[in-house]
Amino acid sequence: MNFSKTLINWYLQNKRSLPWRETNEPYQIWLSEIILQQTRVVQGKPYYDAFLSHFPTVFDLANATEEKVLKLWQGLGYYSRARNLHTTAKYIVNELNGIFPQNYKELLVLKGVGEYTAAAIASFSYNEPVAVVDGNVFRVLSRVFGITSDIAIANTKKEFQQLAQELLPEKYPALFNQAIMEFGALQCVPKSPNCPTCVFNDSCFALEKKCVAELPIKSKKIKVTHRYFNYVIIRDSSDGFVVVKREGKGIWFNLYEFTLLENIQKKSLAEVVEEIRVKFNSNEIILKNEKELVHKLSHQHLHIHFFELKFNHKIEGALSIDELVKLPFPIVIHNFIASNYL
Protein backbone atom coordinates (compact mmCIF):
# COMPACT_ATOMS: atom_id res chain seq x y z
CA MET A 1 0.00 0.00 0.00
CA ASN A 2 1.30 3.43 -0.94
CA PHE A 3 -0.53 5.33 1.77
CA SER A 4 0.55 8.83 0.73
CA LYS A 5 -0.23 8.42 -2.96
CA THR A 6 -3.63 6.84 -2.27
CA LEU A 7 -4.48 9.56 0.26
CA ILE A 8 -3.51 12.43 -2.04
CA ASN A 9 -5.45 10.94 -4.96
CA TRP A 10 -8.52 10.69 -2.71
CA TYR A 11 -8.06 14.29 -1.63
CA LEU A 12 -7.80 15.65 -5.15
CA GLN A 13 -11.12 14.02 -5.98
CA ASN A 14 -12.99 14.83 -2.76
CA LYS A 15 -11.62 18.02 -1.22
CA ARG A 16 -13.89 20.88 -0.25
CA SER A 17 -13.40 24.27 -1.81
CA LEU A 18 -12.28 26.50 1.06
CA PRO A 19 -10.87 30.03 0.77
CA TRP A 20 -7.74 29.42 2.84
CA ARG A 21 -6.79 26.64 0.44
CA GLU A 22 -6.63 29.11 -2.43
CA THR A 23 -3.71 31.04 -0.96
CA ASN A 24 -0.27 30.57 0.56
CA GLU A 25 -0.43 33.97 2.32
CA PRO A 26 0.68 33.24 5.89
CA TYR A 27 -1.64 35.84 7.47
CA GLN A 28 -4.73 34.21 5.96
CA ILE A 29 -3.57 30.69 6.75
CA TRP A 30 -2.67 31.64 10.34
CA LEU A 31 -6.06 33.29 10.76
CA SER A 32 -7.89 30.21 9.46
CA GLU A 33 -5.91 27.84 11.66
CA ILE A 34 -6.55 29.83 14.84
CA ILE A 35 -10.27 30.08 14.07
CA LEU A 36 -10.54 26.37 13.25
CA GLN A 37 -8.96 25.25 16.53
CA GLN A 38 -11.82 23.62 18.46
CA THR A 39 -14.20 24.73 15.69
CA ARG A 40 -15.78 22.91 12.74
CA VAL A 41 -15.28 24.35 9.26
CA VAL A 42 -18.98 25.06 8.74
CA GLN A 43 -19.02 27.17 11.91
CA GLY A 44 -15.62 28.78 11.43
CA LYS A 45 -15.84 29.90 7.79
CA PRO A 46 -18.24 32.84 8.42
CA TYR A 47 -15.89 34.09 11.15
CA TYR A 48 -12.91 33.76 8.82
CA ASP A 49 -14.74 35.77 6.16
CA ALA A 50 -15.75 38.41 8.71
CA PHE A 51 -12.22 38.79 10.08
CA LEU A 52 -10.73 39.16 6.60
CA SER A 53 -13.40 41.69 5.71
CA HIS A 54 -12.71 43.82 8.81
CA PHE A 55 -8.96 43.14 8.99
CA PRO A 56 -7.61 42.46 5.45
CA THR A 57 -4.01 42.53 6.67
CA VAL A 58 -2.11 41.79 9.85
CA PHE A 59 -1.62 45.57 10.22
CA ASP A 60 -5.39 46.10 10.33
CA LEU A 61 -5.77 43.43 12.99
CA ALA A 62 -2.88 44.82 15.06
CA ASN A 63 -4.37 48.31 15.00
CA ALA A 64 -7.85 47.18 16.07
CA THR A 65 -9.09 47.43 19.65
CA GLU A 66 -9.34 44.24 21.65
CA GLU A 67 -13.03 44.99 22.13
CA LYS A 68 -13.64 44.94 18.38
CA VAL A 69 -11.70 41.68 18.00
CA LEU A 70 -13.68 40.04 20.80
CA LYS A 71 -16.96 41.31 19.35
CA LEU A 72 -16.18 39.70 15.98
CA TRP A 73 -15.15 36.50 17.78
CA GLN A 74 -18.41 36.43 19.78
CA GLY A 75 -19.96 32.98 19.66
CA LEU A 76 -16.83 31.00 18.77
CA GLY A 77 -15.84 30.28 22.36
CA TYR A 78 -12.33 29.69 23.73
CA TYR A 79 -11.85 33.46 23.75
CA SER A 80 -8.18 33.20 24.65
CA ARG A 81 -7.69 32.35 20.96
CA ALA A 82 -8.97 35.80 20.01
CA ARG A 83 -6.81 37.55 22.60
CA ASN A 84 -3.73 35.59 21.47
CA LEU A 85 -4.59 36.38 17.85
CA HIS A 86 -4.62 40.09 18.62
CA THR A 87 -1.44 39.95 20.73
CA THR A 88 0.41 38.06 18.01
CA ALA A 89 -0.73 40.46 15.30
CA LYS A 90 0.70 43.36 17.31
CA TYR A 91 3.94 41.43 17.87
CA ILE A 92 4.33 40.69 14.15
CA VAL A 93 3.68 44.32 13.22
CA ASN A 94 5.71 45.99 15.98
CA GLU A 95 8.59 43.54 16.38
CA LEU A 96 8.81 41.83 12.96
CA ASN A 97 7.82 44.75 10.70
CA GLY A 98 4.70 42.89 9.61
CA ILE A 99 6.60 39.90 8.25
CA PHE A 100 5.59 36.45 9.46
CA PRO A 101 8.27 33.99 10.62
CA GLN A 102 9.11 31.80 7.63
CA ASN A 103 9.85 28.42 9.16
CA TYR A 104 8.42 25.97 11.67
CA LYS A 105 10.80 26.72 14.55
CA GLU A 106 10.37 30.48 14.34
CA LEU A 107 6.58 30.18 14.05
CA LEU A 108 6.53 28.35 17.39
CA VAL A 109 7.62 31.58 19.08
CA LEU A 110 4.28 33.22 18.30
CA LYS A 111 1.74 33.31 21.11
CA GLY A 112 -1.12 30.92 20.50
CA VAL A 113 0.84 28.93 17.91
CA GLY A 114 1.62 25.38 18.98
CA GLU A 115 3.25 22.52 17.12
CA TYR A 116 0.23 21.71 14.98
CA THR A 117 -0.47 25.31 13.94
CA ALA A 118 3.22 25.99 13.24
CA ALA A 119 3.41 22.87 11.07
CA ALA A 120 0.25 23.87 9.19
CA ILE A 121 1.50 27.41 8.44
CA ALA A 122 5.01 26.22 7.58
CA SER A 123 3.79 23.60 5.13
CA PHE A 124 0.88 25.54 3.58
CA SER A 125 2.71 28.86 3.25
CA TYR A 126 6.33 27.82 2.74
CA ASN A 127 6.03 24.16 1.68
CA GLU A 128 8.30 23.16 4.56
CA PRO A 129 8.22 19.35 4.95
CA VAL A 130 6.85 19.10 8.47
CA ALA A 131 3.85 16.89 9.21
CA VAL A 132 0.76 18.09 11.04
CA VAL A 133 -0.74 16.02 13.84
CA ASP A 134 -4.22 16.92 15.07
CA GLY A 135 -7.31 14.97 16.11
CA ASN A 136 -8.03 13.95 12.53
CA VAL A 137 -4.49 12.66 12.06
CA PHE A 138 -4.60 10.70 15.33
CA ARG A 139 -7.79 9.01 14.16
CA VAL A 140 -6.68 8.16 10.63
CA LEU A 141 -3.24 6.84 11.55
CA SER A 142 -4.43 4.88 14.60
CA ARG A 143 -7.11 3.11 12.56
CA VAL A 144 -5.20 2.45 9.34
CA PHE A 145 -1.90 1.44 10.99
CA GLY A 146 -3.27 -0.06 14.21
CA ILE A 147 -1.65 2.29 16.72
CA THR A 148 -3.15 1.47 20.11
CA SER A 149 -1.13 3.90 22.21
CA ASP A 150 -3.18 6.16 24.45
CA ILE A 151 -3.35 9.63 22.86
CA ALA A 152 -4.10 11.15 26.27
CA ILE A 153 -0.46 10.43 27.18
CA ALA A 154 1.99 13.13 26.09
CA ASN A 155 4.64 10.76 24.72
CA THR A 156 2.15 9.23 22.29
CA LYS A 157 2.22 12.45 20.24
CA LYS A 158 5.85 11.70 19.36
CA GLU A 159 4.90 8.27 18.04
CA PHE A 160 2.24 9.72 15.75
CA GLN A 161 4.48 12.63 14.74
CA GLN A 162 7.25 10.23 13.70
CA LEU A 163 4.91 8.09 11.61
CA ALA A 164 3.28 11.13 9.97
CA GLN A 165 6.73 12.52 9.15
CA GLU A 166 7.79 9.19 7.59
CA LEU A 167 4.67 9.15 5.42
CA LEU A 168 5.02 12.80 4.36
CA PRO A 169 6.27 13.15 0.76
CA GLU A 170 8.95 15.84 0.91
CA LYS A 171 7.94 17.33 -2.44
CA TYR A 172 4.27 17.68 -1.46
CA PRO A 173 4.04 18.43 2.26
CA ALA A 174 1.16 20.91 1.96
CA LEU A 175 -0.86 18.56 -0.20
CA PHE A 176 -0.31 15.62 2.14
CA ASN A 177 -1.15 17.60 5.27
CA GLN A 178 -4.34 18.97 3.74
CA ALA A 179 -5.23 15.49 2.50
CA ILE A 180 -4.89 13.64 5.79
CA MET A 181 -6.86 16.27 7.71
CA GLU A 182 -9.60 16.32 5.07
CA PHE A 183 -9.73 12.52 5.07
CA GLY A 184 -10.28 12.56 8.83
CA ALA A 185 -12.93 15.26 8.54
CA LEU A 186 -14.94 13.73 5.68
CA GLN A 187 -14.21 10.00 5.45
CA CYS A 188 -12.57 8.60 8.59
CA VAL A 189 -14.98 10.42 10.90
CA PRO A 190 -15.22 9.76 14.66
CA LYS A 191 -18.55 7.93 14.64
CA SER A 192 -19.91 5.46 12.07
CA PRO A 193 -17.47 6.09 9.20
CA ASN A 194 -18.49 4.68 5.81
CA CYS A 195 -15.79 2.00 5.72
CA PRO A 196 -17.10 0.14 2.61
CA THR A 197 -16.35 3.22 0.48
CA CYS A 198 -12.95 3.91 2.06
CA VAL A 199 -9.86 3.77 -0.17
CA PHE A 200 -8.02 1.93 2.62
CA ASN A 201 -10.70 -0.70 3.32
CA ASP A 202 -8.46 -3.51 2.05
CA SER A 203 -5.55 -2.54 4.30
CA CYS A 204 -7.04 -0.86 7.37
CA PHE A 205 -6.06 -2.47 10.67
CA ALA A 206 -9.14 -1.24 12.52
CA LEU A 207 -11.57 -2.49 9.87
CA GLU A 208 -9.91 -5.88 9.72
CA LYS A 209 -9.90 -6.24 13.52
CA LYS A 210 -13.39 -4.76 13.86
CA CYS A 211 -12.24 -2.07 16.26
CA VAL A 212 -12.90 1.11 14.26
CA ALA A 213 -15.07 2.61 16.99
CA GLU A 214 -12.40 1.98 19.65
CA LEU A 215 -9.58 3.85 17.91
CA PRO A 216 -7.90 6.11 18.70
CA ILE A 217 -7.62 5.17 22.36
CA LYS A 218 -8.02 8.05 24.78
CA SER A 219 -8.24 7.24 28.46
CA LYS A 220 -8.76 10.58 30.17
CA LYS A 221 -12.29 11.76 30.64
CA ILE A 222 -13.15 15.41 31.05
CA LYS A 223 -14.40 16.22 34.52
CA VAL A 224 -17.30 18.63 34.22
CA THR A 225 -17.98 21.12 36.98
CA HIS A 226 -21.33 22.82 37.50
CA ARG A 227 -21.67 26.52 38.25
CA TYR A 228 -24.82 28.47 39.08
CA PHE A 229 -25.04 31.96 37.56
CA ASN A 230 -27.78 34.38 38.53
CA TYR A 231 -27.61 37.51 36.41
CA VAL A 232 -29.20 40.67 37.78
CA ILE A 233 -30.23 43.00 34.96
CA ILE A 234 -30.28 46.51 36.37
CA ARG A 235 -32.30 49.01 34.26
CA ASP A 236 -32.64 52.65 35.11
CA SER A 237 -35.46 55.13 34.44
CA SER A 238 -34.19 55.89 30.91
CA ASP A 239 -33.90 52.20 30.00
CA GLY A 240 -30.15 52.19 30.49
CA PHE A 241 -28.47 48.90 31.41
CA VAL A 242 -25.66 48.31 33.87
CA VAL A 243 -22.98 45.95 32.60
CA VAL A 244 -19.49 45.10 33.79
CA LYS A 245 -16.38 43.68 32.17
CA ARG A 246 -15.18 40.31 33.46
CA GLU A 247 -11.66 40.48 34.88
CA GLY A 248 -9.15 38.04 36.28
CA LYS A 249 -8.50 34.48 35.23
CA GLY A 250 -11.29 32.21 34.13
CA ILE A 251 -13.91 32.09 31.43
CA TRP A 252 -14.96 35.09 29.33
CA PHE A 253 -12.05 37.34 30.34
CA ASN A 254 -12.63 40.92 29.08
CA LEU A 255 -16.14 40.14 27.85
CA TYR A 256 -19.13 42.01 29.27
CA GLU A 257 -21.97 40.70 31.41
CA PHE A 258 -24.76 41.84 33.70
CA THR A 259 -24.21 41.95 37.46
CA LEU A 260 -23.50 38.37 38.51
CA LEU A 261 -24.39 36.48 41.66
CA GLU A 262 -22.73 33.10 41.50
CA ASN A 263 -23.64 30.26 43.86
CA ILE A 264 -21.46 27.26 44.57
CA GLN A 265 -24.50 25.03 44.92
CA LYS A 266 -27.91 25.18 43.32
CA LYS A 267 -30.45 27.26 45.24
CA SER A 268 -34.19 27.46 44.84
CA LEU A 269 -35.55 30.39 42.87
CA ALA A 270 -37.17 31.68 46.06
CA GLU A 271 -33.79 31.71 47.81
CA VAL A 272 -32.15 33.55 44.91
CA VAL A 273 -34.94 36.13 44.76
CA GLU A 274 -34.56 36.80 48.49
CA GLU A 275 -30.79 37.17 48.11
CA ILE A 276 -31.32 39.71 45.32
CA ARG A 277 -34.00 41.57 47.30
CA VAL A 278 -31.69 41.99 50.28
CA LYS A 279 -28.60 42.85 48.26
CA PHE A 280 -30.25 45.43 46.00
CA ASN A 281 -33.02 46.61 48.33
CA SER A 282 -35.66 45.99 45.70
CA ASN A 283 -39.07 44.35 45.88
CA GLU A 284 -39.74 44.43 42.14
CA ILE A 285 -37.77 41.49 40.83
CA ILE A 286 -38.79 40.03 37.47
CA LEU A 287 -37.66 36.48 36.71
CA LYS A 288 -36.92 36.43 32.98
CA ASN A 289 -36.53 32.66 32.54
CA GLU A 290 -38.24 30.22 34.88
CA LYS A 291 -36.48 27.31 33.22
CA GLU A 292 -32.75 27.62 33.69
CA LEU A 293 -30.49 28.01 30.68
CA VAL A 294 -27.70 25.44 30.63
CA HIS A 295 -24.67 26.71 28.75
CA LYS A 296 -22.14 23.93 28.15
CA LEU A 297 -18.45 24.70 27.95
CA SER A 298 -15.71 22.10 27.54
CA HIS A 299 -15.15 21.60 31.28
CA GLN A 300 -18.06 23.48 32.80
CA HIS A 301 -21.83 23.54 32.65
CA LEU A 302 -23.29 26.92 33.56
CA HIS A 303 -26.82 26.96 34.98
CA ILE A 304 -28.17 30.43 34.32
CA HIS A 305 -31.15 32.51 35.43
CA PHE A 306 -31.80 36.15 34.56
CA PHE A 307 -33.58 38.57 36.90
CA GLU A 308 -34.53 42.14 36.02
CA LEU A 309 -34.63 45.07 38.43
CA LYS A 310 -36.13 48.37 37.26
CA PHE A 311 -35.12 51.54 39.11
CA ASN A 312 -36.96 54.86 38.87
CA HIS A 313 -33.84 56.99 38.69
CA LYS A 314 -30.93 57.36 36.32
CA ILE A 315 -27.79 55.34 37.02
CA GLU A 316 -24.38 56.71 36.12
CA GLY A 317 -22.66 54.62 33.48
CA ALA A 318 -25.79 52.78 32.37
CA LEU A 319 -25.79 52.08 28.62
CA SER A 320 -28.57 52.31 26.08
CA ILE A 321 -29.51 49.17 24.18
CA ASP A 322 -27.78 50.59 21.08
CA GLU A 323 -24.56 50.98 23.04
CA LEU A 324 -25.01 47.59 24.65
CA VAL A 325 -25.14 45.58 21.43
CA LYS A 326 -21.80 46.97 20.28
CA LEU A 327 -20.00 45.30 23.19
CA PRO A 328 -18.63 41.74 23.17
CA PHE A 329 -20.73 39.43 25.36
CA PRO A 330 -20.63 35.68 25.96
CA ILE A 331 -22.94 34.23 23.33
CA VAL A 332 -25.47 33.05 25.91
CA ILE A 333 -25.93 36.62 27.17
CA HIS A 334 -25.89 38.06 23.65
CA ASN A 335 -28.69 35.69 22.65
CA PHE A 336 -30.66 36.59 25.77
CA ILE A 337 -30.37 40.31 24.98
CA ALA A 338 -31.43 39.71 21.37
CA SER A 339 -34.47 37.68 22.47
CA ASN A 340 -35.63 40.02 25.23
CA TYR A 341 -34.61 43.58 24.41
CA LEU A 342 -34.18 43.95 20.64
From TrEMBL:
Keyword Flavoprotein among record annotations: no
Superkingdom as given in the UniProt entry: Bacteria
Cross-referenced Pfam families: HHH, HhH-GPD, NUDIX_4
Cofactor list: [4Fe-4S] cluster
Catalytic reactions of this protein: Hydrolyzes free adenine bases from 7,8-dihydro-8-oxoguanine:adenine mismatched double-stranded DNA, leaving an apurinic site
TM regions (residue ranges): none
Cofactor: how bound: Binds 1 [4Fe-4S] cluster.
Keywords carried by this UniProt record: 4Fe-4S, DNA damage, DNA repair, Glycosidase, Hydrolase, Iron, Iron-sulfur, Metal-binding
Positions of the HhH-GPD domain: 35-186
EC number: 3.2.2.31
Family listed: Belongs to the Nth/MutY family.
Role, per record: Adenine glycosylase active on G-A mispairs. MutY also corrects error-prone DNA synthesis past GO lesions which are due to the oxidatively damaged form of guanine: 7,8-dihydro-8-oxoguanine (8-oxo-dGTP).
Name of the molecule in the record: Adenine DNA glycosylase
Species the sequence originates in: Flavobacterium jejuense
